[in-house]
Amino acid sequence: MTSSPDGQPAGRTLRPPGLGLLLAEMRGIFELNASLMMSPLLMRAPRGDGHPVLALPGFLAGDLSMAPLRRYLTELGYDAHAWQMGRNLGGLLRMRAALRERLAAIHATTGRKVSLVGWSLGGVYARDLALHAPDMVRYVVTLGSPFANDVRATNATKLYEMLSGETVGNDPAFLAAIAGDLPMPATSVFSRADGVVNWRTCLLRPSAVAENIEVYLASHVGLGVNPAALWAVADRLAQQEGQFSQFDRSGPFAIAYAPPERAQS
After folding, report:
1. pLDDT given at position 264
2. Using an 8 Å Cβ cutoff, are 128 and 103 in contact?
3. Which residues pair with 225 in a beta bridge?
4. What secondary structure does DSSP assign to 104-117, as a single string?
5. Rounded Cα–Cα distance for residues 112 and 123 (Å)
6. Where are the alpha helices (DSSP H) in 192-251?
7. How many CB atoms sit inside 10 A of residue 20's CB?
8. Fewest CB within a 10 Å sphere: which of 1, 58, 220, 233?
């Protein structure tokens, strides 16, 4: 029997987060306020080298949801881009061609590889893009994205299927590919307190160029504005192209990060 990145049997049935965690998602507004108050501290993150970053929003969200992250990355010296496709109503197969065109356009215009930052469903899109166009993608960061284990273990699965017309988890080959190793460095940022996505669906297999970063108490809707998550994204993207080192949890938000071995328990 094979095992998943968290040490559990592959293919195990997981449950979506409970009602208590789902209701607690309202705390996302406090995470946004915390980032605003801590903006001077956040600006001490490593500076970017000007390479392009494409921000992909989560299910039912649009470019507005990613505006704080894009603004932050821009201020740090990155060339941050919106996805420009309106509200994300789901449909990986339906959106795939447009996403590839958007990535290709940014790559052609800038002449540089593009880092992808995807929130929730946006992270699934990001990993799919990275597998299709590895020559265009520099780095992949996912925020609370369900791409591993039982990907149906979310509180948004039924609504996604209703709006997109696609069935989640019915393509074993795709699931194996999206959960597998990417041809470029990758980081998954997640929270065990996620009220929408079961955190075990966010775990990639750690390797010399891949890692999981757990942010204590972060909500699903707050991961893209949580100050500790923002710092982690900026720190990861600041690495030189083609280089990778494991995330250093000793920075100013050290108290917010779980030790790396906790993701395996």
Report:
1. 64
2. no
3. none
4. HHHHHHH-S-EEEE
5. 21
6. 227-237
7. 8
8. 1
Residue ranges covered by each domain of the chain: 19-264
Low-confidence ranges of the chain (pLDDT < 50): 1-3, 6-10
Q: Are 140 and 131 in contact (CB under 8 A)?
A: no
Q: Could you give the C-alpha distances from 101 to 98, 131, 132, 224, in angstroms and in order? A: 5, 15, 12, 24
**What residues pair up with 139 in beta bridges, in sequence order?**
115
Rounded Cα gap, residues 228 and 102, in angstroms: 29
Which one-letter amino acid corresponds to residue 66? M
* pLDDT digit string, tens, across residues 27-51: 999 999 999 999 999 999 999 999 9
Bridge partners of 257, per DSSP, are 215
- The Cα diameter of the chain in Å comes to 49
Residue type present at position 164: S
Which of 135, 133, 147, 134 has the alpha carbon at shortest distance from 58? 147
Give the residue from 194, 121, 187 showing the smallest Cα distance to 151. Answer: 121
Q: Which fold has domain 19-264?
A: Rossmann fold (3.40.50)
pTM of the predicted structure, to 2 decimals: 0.94
Say which residues have a Cβ less than 8 Å from residue 184's Cβ, sequence separation at least 6. 130, 134, 137, 138, 139, 140, 209
